């Protein structure tokens, strides 16, 4: 069973491999990171770790066998008890419920380890798998949005309400 780990310096090689192997797959649903991201990956990785150390963001990797990175699940722009959830799962690891389990686990960590009370998320209308993960993880639609020029939906999940997300799926 893959494990969620807080991002650390030693994740860099596996994380870079994950991003390179899935670049075209991710670009089909979210904006491409661009060539500069890969050229300056080590510098960017250090910057993410500095943001994490400052408590501004919390970056996590979903690690499988042989320390391979199967996904990323992040809390961004942490402030006043809230954060933005972002995630991506390797193409070869989709369809197994990993995204839903990872998002649910990160919701638990957000409340227990980081003291957050609310998470926000957004996805495009044409990203049905992401919309399903958010719904199965207890997020509710709170409005329409636009993501990189594409129509989308904004979501919210309270981490203090007694209701738990559905367990099916």
UniProtKB/TrEMBL annotation:
<dbReference type="GO" id="GO:0008999">
    <property type="term" value="F:protein-N-terminal-alanine acetyltransferase activity"/>
</dbReference>
<keyword id="KW-0808">Transferase</keyword>
<dbReference type="GO" id="GO:0005737">
    <property type="term" value="C:cytoplasm"/>
</dbReference>
<protein>
    <submittedName>
        <fullName>N-acetyltransferase</fullName>
        <ecNumber>2.3.1.-</ecNumber>
    </submittedName>
</protein>
<keyword id="KW-0012">Acyltransferase</keyword>
<dbReference type="Pfam" id="PF13302">
    <property type="entry name" value="Acetyltransf_3"/>
</dbReference>
<dbReference type="InterPro" id="IPR051531">
    <property type="entry name" value="N-acetyltransferase"/>
</dbReference>
<dbReference type="InterPro" id="IPR016181">
    <property type="entry name" value="Acyl_CoA_acyltransferase"/>
</dbReference>
<feature type="domain" description="N-acetyltransferase">
    <location>
        <begin position="2"/>
        <end position="160"/>
    </location>
</feature>
<dbReference type="InterPro" id="IPR000182">
    <property type="entry name" value="GNAT_dom"/>
</dbReference>
<comment type="similarity">
    <text>Belongs to the acetyltransferase family. RimJ subfamily.</text>
</comment>
């Amino acid at each position: 069973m893959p494990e969620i780990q807080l991002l650390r310096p030693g994740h860099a090689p596996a994380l870079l491999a994950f991003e390179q192997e899935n670049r075209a797959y991710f670009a089909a649903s979210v904006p491409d990171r661009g060539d500069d991201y890969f050229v300056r990956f080590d510098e960017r990785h250090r910057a993410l770790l500095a943001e994490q150390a400052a408590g501004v963001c919390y970056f996590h990797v979903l690690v499988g066998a042989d320390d391979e990175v199967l996904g990323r699940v992040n809390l961004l722009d942490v402030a006043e008890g809230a954060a933005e959830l972002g995630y991506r799962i390797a193409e070869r690891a989709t369809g197994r419920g990993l995204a839903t389990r990872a998002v649910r686990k990160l919701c638990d960590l957000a409340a227990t380890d980081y003291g957050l009370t609310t998470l926000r998320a957004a996805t495009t209308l044409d990203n049905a798998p992401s919309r399903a993960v958010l719904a199965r993880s207890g997020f509710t639609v709170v409005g329409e949005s636009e993501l990189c020029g594409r129509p989308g939906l904004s979501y919210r999940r309270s981490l203090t309400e007694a209701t738990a997300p559905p367990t099916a799926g």
